Amino acid sequence: MRTDDFDYPLPDELIAQEPAEPRDSCRLLVLNREDGGVEHRRFRDVIDYLEPGDLLVANKTRVMPARLVGHKRATGGVAETLLLRRREDVDALGHVWECLVNPGKRLKPGAVVEYRPGGLHAPMSAPVVLTGEVLDFVDDNRGGRLVRFTPAEGLTLDEAMHRAGHVPLPPYITKYEGDPEKYQTVYAMREEHSAAAPTAGLHFTPELIQRIEEKGVGWATVELEVGIDTFRLVTEDDPTQHVMHTERYHVSQEVVDLVHQTKEAGHRVVAVGTTSVRSLESAYDPEAPAWRVPVVARRFEDVPDSAKVLGRGDIVERRNATTNLYLMPGSTYHVVDALITNFHVPRSTLMMLVSALATRDQIMSAYQQAIDQRYRFLSFGDAMLIR
C-alpha cells in the first residue's frame, strides 16, 4: 500500500466555493459495499436508506473564530495565527494555545503579535484587543507554535478572540463571502472548540432531522474538536509512516447505551462524518467486557441469561479523552456500520479512512464517477453515503 494509491486528479472547478441552498439540496452518491453499486440522489433522500431502529451519530462541535490576522509588534509586518487547541497542561487558565503561524520562520520565541478588530484591514491606530507572544516551537516545519494570549483590559480572552477572530474557512475556499454560519452545522453546540467544521453534517436541516426521527431513526451526538491535522495531506510515500496528531473527544454514556441498544436489536450505527467515526471507534476498548447475544434476537432484554455470552471488546464512555486514531485499509471498524461523508482531498488520511470501511477500489471508482458526473467536492461540496 502506497500513498499514491489514494491520489486522484481533482479539477479545480469541482471544488465547491459555496454551500448548497437549501443545505439538503446537494447531491448524494450512494455506495453499496456489498456489490460496489452506485446510485445518484439528492441529500434529502438519505432518509430512504435509513431504517427504523438505526442510529445516526453526529459530531456536535462548533467552529471557533480561530483565524487571527495581526501585525508583528517589532516590524509591523502581517502575521496570521490559526488557533488549534488550548494547552491547559502549560497554562491552567487556558491562555496558552497550540497554533499554526504564518510566516512561521520569522516568528521565533519572544515575538509578539498584536490583533485589532477588523484584522488585516484595521488601521494601525485601531485599539489592540489581543496580543500573542510566541513561547516555543511545536512543529517548526509547519509553523507550529505555542502562543500565550493576553486580552485587552476589560475583556475576557474569549471576548477578545471573538472581536479579532474569524471563522477559518479551508484554504481551497477562496471566493466565499457569505454568512459564516453556513460553515456551522444546524445542531452545533454553543461552546466553540474546533478549528474546522465536521462538514458531513452541513447538509442536514432541522426539518430533515425531524423527518428522520419521525421515521424511528435515533439521533445522538458526540464531540470531537476537529484539528487541521485531520485534513492535511500524507507526504510520506508509505502511509503507515504518517503521524496523526491528537484531538480531544467525548463520547457520553448515553451514546454508549444507544449504541448497545441499536446493535442488540440488529440495527446499524450510521456515523455522520469522519470525525464521528474517529470518536466512536476511538471509544472502542478491545479489553472491555461485552455481552454477545444470538443474531436472531431482536431485543436484548428478551434473551435468557443462559444465551448471553460474556466476551471482550466494547464501546465505553470517554470524557475529555484524546485520540490519534488512524484508520486505513486493513483497519477494523468495531462500532460504525455505515457512513455519511463528503468527498475528500486526494492523498489525505480521510481517503484512507473511507477506504477502510469500503474498499480502496470501490472508493476510487465511486470518486471517478462523481468527477464524471460533475459532483461538487470538499467542505462545501456534495455528500456520499457508504452503506
TrEMBL record:
Gene3D superfamilies: QueA-like. The lineage of its organism: Bacteria, Bacillati, Actinomycetota, Coriobacteriia, Coriobacteriales. It catalyses: 7-aminomethyl-7-carbaguanosine(34) in tRNA + S-adenosyl-L-methionine = epoxyqueuosine(34) in tRNA + adenine + L-methionine + 2 H(+). InterPro entries: QueA, QueA_dom1, QueA_dom2, QueA_sf. GO terms for molecular function: S-adenosylmethionine:tRNA ribosyltransferase-isomerase activity. It is found in: Cytoplasm. It holds the Pfam family Queuosine_synth. Its EC number is 2.4.99.17. One of its GO terms (biological process) is tRNA queuosine(34) biosynthetic process. This is S-adenosylmethionine:tRNA ribosyltransferase-isomerase. It comes from the Bacteria. Pathway: tRNA modification; tRNA-queuosine biosynthesis. Belongs to the QueA family. It comes from Olsenella porci. Transfers and isomerizes the ribose moiety from AdoMet to the 7-aminomethyl group of 7-deazaguanine (preQ1-tRNA) to give epoxyqueuosine (oQ-tRNA). One of its GO terms (cellular component) is cytoplasm. The keyword Transferase applies. Monomer. Keywords: Cytoplasm, Glycosyltransferase, Isomerase, Queuosine biosynthesis, S-adenosyl-L-methionine, Transferase.
